[in-house]
What we know:
The structure is a homodimer of 525-residue chains.
Chain A (H helix, E strand, L loop, with lengths): L27 H4 L13 H4 L6 H6 L26 H5 L6 H13 L10 E2 L2 E6 L15 E8 L5 E8 L11 H7 L8 E7 L6 E7 L5 E2 H5 L9 E2 L5 E2 L4 H20 L12 E5 L2 E4 L4 H5 L5 H23 L4 H4 L6 H14 L2 H11 L15 H7 L1 H25 L2 H14 L9 H4 L2 H14 L12 H13 L4 E5 L6 E5 H16 L4
Antiparallel strand pairs in A: 1-2, 2-3, 3-4, 4-6, 5-6, 7-10, 8-9, 10-11, 12-13
Amino acid sequence: MYNQKPMVNINSQPFVPSYNPTQISVEPQLAQNMPNQRYDYNSMAQYATPAPDLYYQQAQAAHYQPLQYHLYAPLPPHKMSLLPYQRTVQGFFLSDNIREELQRKSEASLQILPTSGLPESLDVYYSLVPLDTNAERSNRVFGYPSWIYKAFSKSDGNTYALRRLEGFKLADEKSIATVQQWRRLSNASMVTLFEAFTTRAFGDNSIIFVYDYHPLSSTLFDTHFGPGARYPVVRNANGQIGPSVPEQVLWSYLVQLSSALKTIHAANLAARVMDPSKIILTSKMRVRLSAMGIMDVVGGSVSKEAMQMLQLEDLVNLGRLILSIACNNQSIISMGSSVSLQLISKNLDFTGKFYSVGLKNALAYLLASTSTPVSAESGINNVDDFVHMIAPYYQQNLNSSLHYQDSLESELSREVENGRLVRLLCKFNFINERPEYDHDPAWSETGDRYLLKLFRDYVFHQTDENGHPVVDLGHVLRSLNKLDAGVDEKVMLVSRDEQSCLIVSYKELKSCVDVVFRDLCRPNG
Amino acid sequence: MYNQKPMVNINSQPFVPSYNPTQISVEPQLAQNMPNQRYDYNSMAQYATPAPDLYYQQAQAAHYQPLQYHLYAPLPPHKMSLLPYQRTVQGFFLSDNIREELQRKSEASLQILPTSGLPESLDVYYSLVPLDTNAERSNRVFGYPSWIYKAFSKSDGNTYALRRLEGFKLADEKSIATVQQWRRLSNASMVTLFEAFTTRAFGDNSIIFVYDYHPLSSTLFDTHFGPGARYPVVRNANGQIGPSVPEQVLWSYLVQLSSALKTIHAANLAARVMDPSKIILTSKMRVRLSAMGIMDVVGGSVSKEAMQMLQLEDLVNLGRLILSIACNNQSIISMGSSVSLQLISKNLDFTGKFYSVGLKNALAYLLASTSTPVSAESGINNVDDFVHMIAPYYQQNLNSSLHYQDSLESELSREVENGRLVRLLCKFNFINERPEYDHDPAWSETGDRYLLKLFRDYVFHQTDENGHPVVDLGHVLRSLNKLDAGVDEKVMLVSRDEQSCLIVSYKELKSCVDVVFRDLCRPNG
């Protein structure tokens, strides 16, 4: 019954704190309750290198053996080694607490309202939750009062944002066809439009536009002009307003929004809506044009020449948007096209005074977009030329984005295997010591279930030579991962009365788990 | 003893398959063994909305209550809704199997060699593993034979790549000071240099340069010219070589490498090494300049004028690199500066024939970088002008990168809570049914431990009205998360003999777990 492999005596195994702190990230409040979890750099050496007697085994293990999968290693670039002033590059896109943000986003996605007074369902969409309860209803942007709801889709289970225009009657079926054009556009700085349909479910003629739902996003209006604005207004001693939004932020908006416009204009479309209340921030510094495609349906189809005019208007509107944010002056936008040249030029001067010349020039270029070229050789302003103009800021934003990618991959690599372990642990708990078989010795005291019970003891219930419990998460993770991989390595299981022992391979144990769990799940018990 | 809350009778609870398929990603081989896990769009509605009797509870739950944290929701943009041809945008940076890649990277980071014949440690670095065993040793690039090793650092536990130049004797201590300048640069398309030191540990005079270690990276040389090249050479009917590398890939290299050069040149430094064997691909489409800073130490300090020449050489070398990859012609690089103008122009013609004019022009610009400007108004070629020139491709790459960010955030959001659940499940298993207390009724049959045992039964060992086991992962996750959050909600626990029942809050149960687990971890048992 004994085997050539080194024996493991469960009763005399010394306490080896081989828990690797990087394997599972530990929240502070839980860390207090777990031993050996403080991230101590000076003592990490012992965790990162296996003990010498494991060397031979390791050398034999071929590359990519699944049993090593649980030994997580931090990916570069290593944050620890970043100097303080380098952090800004990463921090530019990176949320300060990505985990908390993801949790809150998930929660917002799943939020429902029990009694909203809204229709139970619209087409395949149900569980409507109004997203803009506080906004006053006006026809300023679309010409019709508009509402926005979050809803689940029956067809794919995802959440979507439904924008409803109230009292709109579709005159021409053809004008809804542009939605197909919008559907094909893919730009990371634009909220994707999926479909549009008319409905009488609200008791009126409404048209619904279906978009990706980005949880916890806020509009540029709320971020910069709302009551809880992100960048409080700075005033100098004379009460004059100074610049409050960092130039880097303005450039990032310009880069992302011009990137969206480039995709839109290349498809012979125009954004038409560039209102701060319809542009959303979906995370710290990710800005997306929303409400695209609505004006094409509401305003009817447009000739080629008119489309070029609309594209020029997009550029002017982008210029006005950034100018109003830079100067903290809402009136530039709220006045629409009736804004005076004098106000524009006064605010451009302000920009030139407090920000770089490059920013002022970029805004001046956008604001001067008309169908008559400034000079013969310059041609009519267009977004392609603008992208060339601000290329250094594209480089800067690409660099930030790639840095953020590295951080996200590094975060993900720390979590990638935990889902598998959760499922395996749950299976164990479903199987072991079921009360309904308390009096049935055949259930968990013989055969496969008995093996699993002993293995459970081996994994969790070891004691050291003094009879003290061994609480070693490293041992647990190693054992469970070997089990999940079903490796050929053998393990000696000792019965509770220490009178018998069984030597089984992880492979056999794995098939035990499969068989027993399948038994458990069979409808006839 | 009874409470106003709705009762849960563990023996008669109907089987409700409320497992949400998006909560934990399931590997195919495991999915077979778990019931109710097929991703069925048409039946998802019932999972996404809680049952009607839960509405009231949900409405009462304030926003951001931790108990909802485990209800993961997929983040937009939804991959399912992407049209086939849109996938390329995301797929550009996205690895086809991000999870597998992360696992393999982790494994590569942790690999060790038992008997390498290398020094046991170098400064704070130990466990050296040679990374370029197959490469022939030549002084072509640095003027000295060079080696590269992976090693762990004692000071922070991370892995680093150590590049060693053999037989190098530091003549001037000052020249090693430029390493400090390199250390300060932060660019996502460049491998960060941390420090350099001389050592006699190899039995000679060696100098070691310490970089971030990027696991599983391959060099551009291996990717394009090595035996297992990624893009096999395409020949037409006449045996002539056609283009094999997609233009998008060439642009991505140009964008990333010029981004690195921009950062380097802005710091008054020059890359000096642009060899395909020293540029690495760290994931599908992420390219990074490595071996930076070595030539500054080896070649000694450089005057301001000489630095400008070196920067111009960087541009020419970048042009040669991309040209050689586009035309699959190694000789353009291996001949170094002695490459004939004729060969260059022949290959440029090839590029113009099979790729866009824009690419040919970009390469021609790089290759024509000399200290004499082409015309009076154009000025001397520089990387800033080049970035302006290829701005549309910066826009394209930024868009791809932002899309990839979205995908990574979405992946991460699905895993973010699993680590916490693994720890909680392990605690449970450490506590329940320990064999050493088999005969001690005080251990797990009274007080806190008894409560936890009953709670374990409540979570895992429920049966339906026919006495069949209820295997409901949704119930498990909900219960464990409520426990972890320590909410005030109460739960009724029934003893195994059904003779008594206890009503406790999750809050009380949470403190039970804490107390009992602390007991278990106390050194004196």
